[in-house]
Amino acid sequence: MRLLNTKTLNLEEFLNEDQVSYVILSHRWEKDEISLQQLVAGGVEDMLGYQKIQQYCRIAAEAGFQYAWIDTCCIDKTSSAELSEAINSMYRWYQKADMCYTYLSDVESVNDIETSVWFTRGWTLQELLAPKYMTLFNRRWKPLCSKEQLAQKLSEITGVPYGALCGTVPLSSCSTAQRMAWASKRVTTRPEDRAYCLMGIFDVNMPLLYGEGEKAFRRLQEEIIRTTHDHSIFAWSCKDATGPRDLLATSPELFVNCSEVTLRSDASRPEQYFMTNSGLSISLQMLPWAVDIYLAVLECTADAPQLKLERALTPDTTRLAIFLHQTKRTGEFFRMAISGREIFTCKRSGVRHWLKTRRILILPCAPQEAVPSSLSRLLPYGFVFRSTPTRIDPTKPEDGPVVLRGRNPPEFWANSDHWMVKLHPGQCGTVATLDLRGFGPMNCLLKFGFDFEFHPVCMVDTRTREPEEHDVTSVLNNDDWIDNGVALHGIDAPLQDLDIWERRESYAFRAHRHFFSSVWIFPLQLRIEFSSQSTHVGLDLHNVYVRYFPQKEVAKVQKAKTTKPKFSYPCLSKEDVLYEHD
């Protein structure tokens, strides 16, 4: 460590800063600042930068300090090694100083202190936070007040909580997103310094690579991830963003709305997550949102009005969440924004049934095949019901033997004999019910929905039901049956006939959904036959990828000779269905 002798203004070197008492200066670089080489060479007495050094050392000497540090001439900036060491040590130097003098060259009195450019610079944030004792001076080098005396006003100006400013609350108790928010409106001359000036605040170290641009801030976040389990580092957002997004923020500016993001006080320590050579390996609670899109819940919360987000309940009962899109590989995701929203607040208790914890890999950026235009809108997904020869008319549910009810109102699909019941983004689980009345010895209830992986699932219930069990609202809101579905549909599986009526029980099964290709989505078709008439129900997954056109007869179903309905379940191969991109 190199220090100025306040009496002689000569530089002296110390191998251990713990063995010397010194005062340190916080200021804004201006015209004619003096470098180490210029100070040693001499002849700088008429420069404004030298006059600043003189005044600084004079006040320090009067206060009894023999040594003083200033960043302009106490670092040899021609040496990249020394510059890197100094920047990595700077927070510690300010923290260990006996006193910090803050020179505000554009301020005359305390009343106009908030107008100072000093509050807009990136480097001065750590210079405000690190010192235990600080005295602020105006442009004439007249003392204004101490940091402690002005703490409340400084908190209002900077957004830094009072306790963090005064040192009564450790910075580590503030979330990563909060600390980033403090720096979100500050600027630096070089883009890399927006990251380097924050290393001390997050207690991390990394080499300096000037010329890397925004990569420096990404490296900073990766270093933070290595030393913390704080999920709030992913709580950044960009206004009006849509489509694929990077996992990590590109600058502190994206944390501008995170000043109220806090870690969950009621949460146990999150499971460890870490960066790999492919991306972030992390365990998250996830909720199906739309086809291949999930809401991933973070272990942090916020005051929603401060974040300008939807508010479900009070801050301590909401969780922040991000949107993730699954790639062609199972368990591999990339981050995305939907309709200008990257962060969402959710009430955990309201979605507890659908929350599942998954260890996943989040890519640093979206793969090339993730075309932004194709992800800018979310299409609904659901089931198409073909009602030939028995007509289904949801508008007149009491007129026919087949009653179709949906989570959302059924809509025409292709023609009047086709109906689609769909889920909107954010909805999951049960989609529709089909009540077959007057066939056989009892009624039959079919329920349709999608499981966590968006596999279409069907339940056929032939049990005798009490009148209250026919309540539409309770039936549609109950999703417990979906996880019990038996996977019967394989790509090459043979035709399976299910004489479920004979069982007189409830039976659920799910169709196979092929995640590994964006082209092949295999529909499940269920045909329910009766002796005199039949009802054909097609369980076809309709999503953002494809529409399909039958090329040949899927399966031949032998007519039943008894009064018992028979459930035939044909499984398709790739040759059975031709898919075409929308």
TrEMBL record:
Signal peptide stretch: none
InterPro entries cross-referenced by the UniProt entry: DUF8212, HET
Domain Heterokaryon incompatibility: 22-107
DUF8212 domain boundaries: 215-237
PANTHER family in alphabetical order: HET DOMAIN-CONTAINING PROTEIN
Protein name as catalogued: Uncharacterized protein
